[in-house]
User: Which sequence fits this backbone?
C-alpha cells in the first residue's frame, strides 16, 4: 500500500492567484457568489484576495469589500495576501483575520522585484507581524520558488532554510512552499518536504503547485507521500505562469478533489458543487481554463 | 528518498493510438519523417500502426507500407496492434516483427465490442500467436480498463488475473495495462502493479495512461514507485478518450520525458528533438493538443 494521509485540507486560491492572472476583472457580486458556493461545498480555507495597490493589481481592488461582506462567517478561514504594513492596516480595518506574507527563495527574483534580499524582505515583515498580532490577525508566510527559479535554476537548501529561519524569527510558523514557476518535480518535492518537516517539526506546511509542465498532480502525490496534508488549488485551474505567457495555471481544484475522492482521501468538499462553481467561473472569465474534470467529468459519471 | 527506477523505456504510441483519434489522415511520408526523427531522438520502441480493416480505421491504412519502409531498421522495436489472424498475415507479409493483441478486462466493454467474453477473445488469439511465432514475430498483449470501466465501474482483480492467465496460456508474457478510460488513480496503480509483479514474476509489464482527468503523470509516478519501467506515451499528447468527446488524450511524450529528465531518470531520448517533432505533428493535425511542455518549454529553458 502507498503511504498516504487519510484527509487533506485544500485552500482555494482561484479568487486571488487565479483572477490576478486574468484580463477580466470579476465584479464583487460574482466573487461573493462563488465564495458562498465554495463555503457551501465544504471548503474551509479560501484566499479571498490581496491588499496590494489597486493600481498595480486592479483585479484585487475589492478585497476589503469582500472581507467586510464575509466578516460574520465562522469556521472558514478567509485569508488575504499582504505585502507590507499598509496591507495589514487594511486587513485590520475590514475584518480580515488571516494574512499571508510572501518572499522569494530566489535572490535574483527578490532583487528584481523589490531590490532586497529575501532576508531583508522578511526583516521588514516584523512590523507587519507585530501589527497583525496586536490586532488578533493570524499570520502565515509563503516562499516562492523553493523548487527552482528562472534566475538561479536550482535553489540551495541553505537559501530556503535561511528564509524559514527568518520567518520563525518574526513569529511566523505556518509556511507555504510555492512553485509559481512550475519547476518542481516529485522526487525533489518528496525529499525536501521530508527534510523540512524533520528539521522544523512545529511548522504547519502548505504546498502550492502550478501545472505549468503537467506535474502538479504528481507533485501533490509526492507531497502527500512525504506527509504534507495542506495544498492550494484553484477553481477551474485558473491562473497562469508569471514567466511563461499562455502556460497552464494553478492546479485545478476539481481535478485535485476528484483524484483525492477516487483515492478515498477525504477533503470534506462536495465535488459536484465545485464543478458547478468552476463552470460558472470559466463562463465569467470567458475562456477555457486548464481543467480536466470540467472537460471529462468525474470517472463516476462515465459509468453506465 | 523516493524509491524510483534509474531508467525508463518509453513506447511512442502517437502514430497509432494518437492518430487513430484524429480526423486528419496523416500521409505516409509524414509518418515516415516523424518515425525517422523519433528513432534519431533515441526512442527504441515505437507503435507504427495497426492491421485493422482500413474501412474501419482509415488512419491506419498505410501501416503495411510503413513496415515495408522500415524493414531494415535495427535495434528499434517497431510494433503494430493486431486484432486477429488476418492481421498477423499482414504483419508477416510486410516484415513487422512485433505485434500487440488487445482485450478488455471489462466484460461489458468486450461484449459490446465483439460479443465475446475476454476469455473467449483470448482463446481466439491462439491461432494468431501460433502464426506469429512460426513467422518469428514477437507477441505482446494489452488489457484495456483494468483500472475501471464505463460498463462495470471497478474491475475485480479476479477478472484481470483470469485474462493474464489466458494470455500466459497462449504464450504471451509481455502485457500492457491500458487505462483508455482515464479512470486509474495512483494508489490503485501502485497496489495493483505491486501485486501483479509479485504474482506473475516472469511477465514484462507496460503501463498505458491517458490524461483524461489529469492523473497520467501521477499514475506514472505511482507505477515507477511500484517498480514498473515501461510506459507508453504519445507525441504531443495526441489521442483522446473513446468515451468522452473532447477529452484529453494520451499522456504527452515530451511531458513524460521532461519530468523524467528533471528527476534524473534516464530515458535515452533527446527531449529537444522530441519537442521539435511534437510541434511538427501538432501543425500537421492542425490543432492544439494536450501537451504542457509544447506550451511552456522545458524548466531549463526558463533559466536566464
Assistant:
Amino acid at each position: 500500500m502507498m503511504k498516504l494521509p487519510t484527509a487533506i485540507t485544500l485552500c482555494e486560491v482561484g479568487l486571488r492567484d487565479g483572477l490576478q492572472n486574468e484580463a477580466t476583472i470579476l465584479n464583487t457580486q460574482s466573487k461573493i457568489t462563488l465564495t458562498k458556493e465554495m463555503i457551501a461545498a465544504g471548503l474551509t480555507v479560501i484566499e479571498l484576495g490581496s491588499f496590494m495597490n489597486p493600481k498595480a493589481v486592479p483585479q484585487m481592488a475589492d478585497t476589503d469589500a469582500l472581507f467586510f461582506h464575509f466578516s460574520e462567517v465562522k469556521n472558514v478561514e478567509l485569508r488575504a495576501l499582504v505585502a507590507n504594513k499598509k496591507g495589514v492596516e487594511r486587513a485590520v480595518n475590514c475584518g480580515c483575520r488571516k494574512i499571508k506574507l510572501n518572499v522569494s527563495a530566489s535572490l535574483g527574483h527578490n532583487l528584481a522585484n523589490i531590490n532586497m534580499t529575501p532576508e531583508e524582505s522578511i526583516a521588514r515583515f516584523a512590523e507587519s507581524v507585530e501589527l497583525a498580532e496586536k490586532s488578533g490577525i493570524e499570520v502565515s508566510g509563503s516562499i516562492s520558488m523553493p523548487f527552482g527559479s528562472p534566475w538561479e535554476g536550482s535553489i540551495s537548501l541553505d537559501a530556503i532554510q535561511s528564509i524559514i529561519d527568518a520567518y520563525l524569527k518574526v513569529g511566523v510558523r505556518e509556511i507555504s512552499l510555492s512553485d509559481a514557476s512550475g519547476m518542481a518535480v516529485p522526487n525533489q518535492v518528496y525529499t525536501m518536504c521530508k527534510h523540512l518537516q524533520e528539521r522544523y517539526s512545529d511548522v504547519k506546511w502548505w504546498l502550492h503547485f502550478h501545472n505549468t509542465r503537467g506535474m502538479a498532480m504528481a507533485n501533490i502525490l509526492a507531497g502527500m507521500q512525504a506527509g504534507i496534508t495542506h495544498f492550494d488549488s484553484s477553481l477551474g485551474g485558473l491562473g497562469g505562469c508569471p514567466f511563461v505567457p499562455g502556460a497552464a495555471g494553478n492546479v485545478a481544484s476539481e481535478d485535485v478533489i476528484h483524484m483525492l475522492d477516487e483515492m478515498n482521501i477525504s477533503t470534506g468538499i462536495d465535488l459536484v458543487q465545485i464543478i458547478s462553481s468552476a463552470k460558472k467561473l470559466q463562463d465569467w472569465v470567458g475562456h477555457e481554463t486548464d481543467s480536466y474534470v470540467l472537460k471529462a467529468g468525474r470517472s463516476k459519471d462515465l459509468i453506465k
About this structure: Chain B touches chain A through 54 residues (CB under 8 Å).
